[in-house]
Each structure stands twice: as structure tokens, then as C-alpha cells.
């Protein structure tokens, strides 16, 4: 895990006052993303657009205002398509604000954080320090291995590799052999040293792929979404622990069947509007009900129901499934018509 450096009065600078709260939030997110990914301040354009969930910002504002900003029908949620358009405009205006304030500089492939290397360590520096820490760890383990035949194995050193010898308890302050043995480690003061959870690939917000075998239904859902995103011309996303967790919650906690999840994936990735807004499993779960409502508007109102929105007890399917089948039939008919044209 790496840490970013921020002055405690940075927000008083006129540049940050110009960009507003969303601009400050996006700038800080970009700073953290670049530091974690060691890009020396460079942020690809597609990453800059997804650092903040502007759709959730718009939804929160609309829901807070309630009926005052809806169509008068008493539906605080409003029209999801209108929300997404508003989110797109808000996202673009926030990015433009950062560029106009010269907090971000435009680059051919995205943006560069202004004066990033004046305040943050470069990727080369961080890699060098990590290599030195790893070397200290290896040296300590080797010393402990050589000493293991003469005395009991000492306690592990702190994660930053600050201890020099297995028995230097008084110097590193990690153990208290006269009373209670090991003492809980203090927070890591070095922003560039590896902590145990980082070595295990489980740090908060980590995008380290999860290779642990998991449930077939979760794997199918994640693979289907990744395949569909790639088929639409985007870079194939990495299936992470976060993806698997959200897919599992979508099935287990939200009560969606695997078929419903796969249908939602196929529908949104075939829709020209939603394919650009659903590019991850967390986003699919967050927007599932909006996708269901969008599919519902493409079909006649459902028959009276008793076990859930759009559920048909005669067929055992819901409205989302039936809307997807109709969409597939229309696509097949259009393809056949084009193939038969002279």
C-alpha cells in the first residue's frame, strides 16, 4: 500500500475553490489512483471518467429533492435515462473544470496531475524502496534460520523491516519479553512499505485478481460480463474479488437467479445507452433495478402479479426475461431481413 501526500490546507488554494466539491473529490481520487498504480500522475481518459460514480451523485440529489424534480407522478427515482444523461454532463463539466484550473493537464491518452512529482514519490523511488525492504526481510529470515539451531525462533519483525537482529527487543519496541510477550504493532508510519494484507492481495480497494476457486454461478456471471464488455470493443476488465463478491450478493442477497443476471448482462450490453454505463459487476448490481425498469418500458404492462415485480406464475418468468426474449426475436428478424435483401 502507498500513501499520498496532501497539505492540510490544500483546499484553500484558489484553484480548488474554482472547481468546487466534486472537482476536489475527483482530483483526490485521481491522486490516489495514480499513486496506487504508480503512473507518475498520469490518468487514462477512461479511468478519469469512472473514478467517481456521478450516476449515484445525480440519484442522491434527485431522491433528496423528491417530487419537486420529478414529472409530478410521485416517483422520486425519476427517469433513469435522464439521470444518466445528467451524470454524463456533470462528469464532463467536472473534468473540464480541473483542466481549466490547471489541476489536470490534458495528454494524448488522458490527463496528467499538475506538479505530481513535486510532492509525490515517483514509481522508480517506490519500487526501489520496496526492493530494499524486501531485501531486509530476506536478510532477517536468513539470520533467523541460521540462529534457529542455537535458540528458540524469535518473534517476527515489524512489517517495515526495521529490526536488525532477532533479539533487539529494546530497540524496536515491538516486544515486551519481561511481561506479556508480543505487543500489537503500531500503525505503519512508512507510506511505502508493504503490509501483510498487501502481500496477500487483500488491501482495501485492491484490484489484484482473485485466483481462489469459487462458485460456478458467480464465475459464469463474472465471465459473461467481462466477455460482453470485451466484445463491445472495450478493454477486457479484470475479474477481481470485488466482482465476485458483488455477483454473489446479487444472487444470494438480492435474490436474482443466474439466468436473470445473465439476461441483465446480455440486455444492457446490447443496449447502446447502457453498455457505456455498466462496465463492472458492482455497477451491474447497483443498476439492476434500473435495467429491469428500462426493459419493462419496452413491453406492454404485465398481468396482475402476486409474487414480485413482473412475475408471471403461469410461465415462471419475470418481465425482464420476457423483454429480453422479445429483444432477441427482433434482432433475429432484423438480421434475417438484412440477409435476404438484394
From TrEMBL:
Residues 125-215, 294-342 are annotated as: Disordered. Residues 164-178 have a biased composition (Polar residues). Residues 148-163, 332-342 have a biased composition (Low complexity). Residues 125-134, 319-331 have a biased composition (Basic and acidic residues). It comes from the Bacteria. This is Uncharacterized protein.
Amino acid at each position: 500500500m502507498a500513501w499520498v501526500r496532501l497539505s492540510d490546507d490544500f483546499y484553500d488554494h484558489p484553484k480548488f475553490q474554482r472547481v468546487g466539491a466534486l472537482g476536489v473529490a475527483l482530483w483526490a481520487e485521481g491522486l490516489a489512483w495514480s499513486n496506487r498504480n504508480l503512473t507518475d500522475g498520469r490518468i487514462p481518459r477512461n479511468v478519469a471518467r469512472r473514478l467517481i460514480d456521478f450516476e449515484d451523485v445525480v440519484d442522491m440529489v434527485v431522491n433528496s429533492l423528491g417530487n419537486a424534480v420529478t414529472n409530478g407522478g410521485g416517483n422520486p427515482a425519476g427517469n433513469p435515462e435522464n439521470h444518466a444523461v445528467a451524470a454524463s454532463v456533470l462528469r464532463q463539466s467536472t473534468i473540464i473544470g480541473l483542466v481549466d484550473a490547471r489541476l489536470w493537464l490534458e495528454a494524448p491518452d488522458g490527463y496528467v496531475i499538475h506538479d505530481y512529482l513535486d510532492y509525490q514519490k515517483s514509481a522508480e523511488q517506490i519500487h526501489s524502496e520496496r526492493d530494499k525492504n524486501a531485501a531486509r526481510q530476506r536478510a532477517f529470515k536468513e539470520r533467523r534460520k541460521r540462529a534457529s539451531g542455537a535458540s528458540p525462533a524469535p518473534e517476527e519483525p515489524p512489517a517495515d523491516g526495521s529490526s536488525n537482529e532477532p533479539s533487539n527487543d529494546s530497540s524496536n519496541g515491538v516486544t515486551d519479553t519481561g511481561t506479556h510477550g508480543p505487543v500489537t504493532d503500531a500503525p505503519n508510519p512508512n507510506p511505502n512499505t508493504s503490509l501483510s494484507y498487501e502481500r496477500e492481495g487483500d488491501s482495501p480497494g485492491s484490484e489484484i485478481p482473485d485466483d481462489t476457486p469459487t462458485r460456478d454461478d458467480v464465475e459464469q456471471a463474472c465471465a459473461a460480463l467481462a466477455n460482453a464488455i470485451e466484445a463491445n470493443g472495450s478493454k477486457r476488465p479484470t475479474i477481481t474479488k470485488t466482482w465476485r463478491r458483488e455477483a454473489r450478493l446479487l444472487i444470494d442477497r438480492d435474490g436474482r437467479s443466474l439466468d436473470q443476471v445473465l439476461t441483465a448482462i446480455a440486455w444492457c450490453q446490447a443496449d447502446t445507452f447502457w453498455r457505456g454505463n455498466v462496465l463492472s459487476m458492482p455497477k451491474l448490481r447497483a443498476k439492476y433495478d434500473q435495467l429491469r425498469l428500462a426493459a419493462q418500458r419496452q413491453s406492454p404492462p404485465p398481468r396482475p402479479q402476486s409474487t414480485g415485480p413482473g412475475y408471471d406464475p403461469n410461465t415462471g418468468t419475470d418481465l425482464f426475461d420476457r423483454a429480453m426474449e422479445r429483444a432477441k426475436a427482433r434482432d433475429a428478424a432484423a438480421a434475417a431481413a438484412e440477409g435476404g435483401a438484394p
